[in-house]
Known about the structure:
This protein has 14 helices and 29 strands. It starts with 15 loop residues before the first strand and ends with a strand. The longest helix has 25 residues, at 225-249. By secondary structure, the protein is an alpha+beta fold. A hairpin with a 2-residue loop joins β10 (397-403) and β11. The protein is 23% helix and 29% strand. Strands 12, 13, 15, 16, 17, 18, 19, 20, 21 and 22 form a ten-stranded mixed sheet that branches. Strands 5-9-8-7-6 form a five-stranded mixed sheet. Strands 26-25-28-29 form a four-stranded antiparallel sheet, with no helix packed on it.
Amino acid sequence: MQSQDVAPRPRPASAAAPGPVVDIEQAEAALVEHYPRLVRLAYLVLPPSLGRNRRVLTAHALTQRTLPRGRASGDTAVLPAQKTATAGREGDPGYAYVRLRLLRMALEAARPLTFRAWPTRAQLPPLLPQVWGLRLFPRSGGADELALDQRLSALSAPARAAFVLRGLERMADADVRTMLAAAGEEDPAAALAEADAVDTAEGADALLASPEFDPCSLHARPTDLVRRRQHIKAAVAAAAAVAVCGALLGMPGDGWGPEGAAAPPYAQNPAAQAALDPGKLTLVPAGAWESSARTDFSVWPARGALTGDKALLRRALAVWARPGGTVQVSATPGTPSGAPPGPPQLLYAGEVDQSRVVLLYDGLRIARYAEAKDGGTQGAALDFARVDGASGADADALVLGRTDGNVRYLTAPWVRTAVVRDLLKSTAGTTPLARSADGVTEPFASPALQTGACRSWNVLELTDKAGTRLSTDLGELTPARLTSGRPGRAGDASAADWAPLACSLADARGQGVRAVNSWSYARQSLPDGSGTAEWLCTRADTWRGGGPRVLAQFHAPGQRFGAVAAKAENASACGSKDPHVLAGVLWKSVKGDWYLLAAGGEDTASIRATGGVSGAARSNLLAVRAEQGAQAVLKGTLSSGREIGGLR
């Protein structure tokens, strides 16, 4: 904590008097000397809805614009009455002047934009300073700082200013009223009364001087590098397309005119034109799912505070139909990203963190449109996920947004409770997940965004009248359902089923996965008598049907996680159509001897190994002595006489 930021609290005064007229040299000297404190003051007064990066840049921009334009300001500096003759910061007319100017601009920046008046310069994104390719934000504080920031975010801008002037500047209430009135606030008394509602426990004022609120001591992180690269490539491709089209239009012959061979996009196409009309969106009533025989996205009601915002919905539909070069478009594998064939169904429209989000459904796909709350369609994102055939557990939740490593869901109307469970701590219980009246969950840490070592794996546990189900975020709009059991007879999984396998789910991220099943297909006594090992097979099936990913894992006693024995893509093993699997692993005993261990499902009648290791067994289990690093080829024979190969 910086000691110069916390001054002794003065005794209350009943009045404040204006100080002298300030010239530019006085103001500049005060600005340079007290710059960190002034930027902190602006950062605290600015609305948290701007986001931490823009809030930092705006605080610096406003502070740097506090100097008078002429040699003299023409304004008087508002000083606390008892401080006009004192030395130091509070007795400096230059500091008082720039502080008043800064407060006035910060309050202007916090006012919402309206169509009735032109925005002031303070309400617009700062021209300077600008940082390209980086996000800047102050260092994170502790739980006390986070709690204070949440309480301040609930206040109006004048109330935040009153609270900060009291706590950071140590001003008496009478001086705060005078300062707010000089800054243009019409009702300073109401601002003080609102600030009184904030819990000011012992030490709360000192928290304002903590690193959490210091916009001069910053962390830097890159913006989304993948999307930025895609943006540049899309811009280059768009420029090339414009150049080619321009050349073609300049050539003689048929073009895009009314009589040309290629009409303008959507010309004379009633279905496509209707798909762009927000008034024709399908809106399902709130209680329709209760009387319907279906439990899929078609009976989700339209939810969110912005379902009546026609301008937002029109933008979302237009971007879906024809995304421009600045739109960041993504789609899960096998998902078409073209325009809707007709008016889609509206599932959600509302504000999520720092974005406006719209979820739409056309019977085949979920489309998520997101734009910044303060930036319009600039930098908008459009994401697609295939959901054909979704029903019941497959239609329990959709991802609304991901921010700072956290994920937030919109749950189905039939979901009764939602909790979070860490699969790697399956015995530790669950954490309740609060939801809004619209079914929007509070954010929690997403395994799809974690990097480094796998130390936790959070899953979403939803309960309705049909039971409890586990789902996990794999980087898609739809979470993947977790099941357990023999293929074709699998049911909802428990946390214990997935505890030794959770980290292997990382292999299925970003693949358009619909469900992942775990199957304990064999148990094998180890040849050195050290216990019994378990053979497990996990299969990640996709929405598109193709591209399943299969992992065979060997779980030795005493090991927390299983070892991957084999993996395959586009394999039929462990699936409902072909519930058979055979896999092997080289294993070192406690005594140091090496063995080839192999196992098949219960319907495997015999196994033989050839190549670097030779051996056979007339059962579904094989254990043969081997050399370290030996390579073997496995073949199995089912009880039906059919041969299967080992999974590789």
